[in-house]
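Board notes (copied after class):
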Amino acid sequence: MIEPAVPSRAPRWLLMAVKSAAFLASLPILGFAIYGPNNEQHIPFLQLANDPSLYPGDPYAAALPYYSGVLWHLMRIPFRYVPEVALLVALTLLQRLFFLFSAGRLARALSGGNEIAESVVWCLFAFKVVPFLGWGTVLPVNFEHTSIAVACFLLSLAFMVEGKPLRAGACLGLVGLANILHVAYGILLLALVVAFTRELRTRWNTLRGCLVALVVMSPAMYLALQTMDLPRIEPWVYLRLMWFYVPQHFFPSSWSIREWLIVGLAGAFVALAWVFGRLPHGARQTLLGVTVGHLL
C-alpha cells in the first residue's frame, strides 16, 4: 500500500462524527423519496414477479420477466416478505451509506491512506455532486440500480489503486450485477486509468482481477444472452425512443457548449497525466484523482 506523504490521522470519534453529520445532511440537501427515477420500470417488475395476475395484456409488463438486471431479480425475495414502502426506505438509506463509503474509500486510496481525505469526500458528495455530462445524479433521491453500480465501481477503482486485483475484480463484477451496461463503461474507464498510470501498469495483476469479475457478473451475462432469441424492435425505433427518454446518455449532439468544453477539459487532464507521468507521487495522485473525477 502507498504510504501517505503527510500526517493523515485525526481522532476516530471526530472522523465518525463528520461522516455521520455528512450522511444526515445529505437527507435534506440531496432529498429523500420512496419512489423516484427508474422506479417506474422496476417496481412493476417486482410486483409482477410476486403476483403474475397483475397488468393483464400490458405489452411492457410482458417484457419485464426478461429484464437482465440481476439486482432486481434478487430484490424479488425481500419484496415478497417485507412491506414495499418500509423496504424502499431502508434500501435508500443503505444505498446512500454505501455510496458515501465507496467514494471515501477511493479518496483514501488515492491519498495514500489519508483518513481525513476520506471524511472530506463524504462531505463533498453529501452536498450534491452533479455529473458534468449528460443527465442524472450521482446520489439519487430513491433506491435504484445506477447509484449502486457507480458505488461498486468506485470501490473497484480504490482496490485497483491499492494493488488488490481480486477485490477490484469482485467489485467490478458487482457493477455488472447492478447494471450490465455500466460495467461496460467501467471496464473502459478502468482500462484508461491503467493505461495512463505507469505505477498501476507495473504492479496490478489484470488477468486475475478480470477472471474474478467475469465469474461474479456471469449471472448478468447469462440473463443478457437469454434475451438474444427474443423478438427485436427496429434499431431506428429504439434510437427514437432513447432520444425522447434520455438523449444526453446516447446522443452527444444533444450536449450543450458547456458540456463539450467539459469533454475537452477532461481530455486535457488525461494528456497531463500521461505527459507528466514522471512527477513525484503526490502530484501523480492529484492528477489521477482530478482526471477520474472529470471522467466520472
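Comment from the instructor: The radius of gyration is 20 Å. The mean pLDDT is 81.
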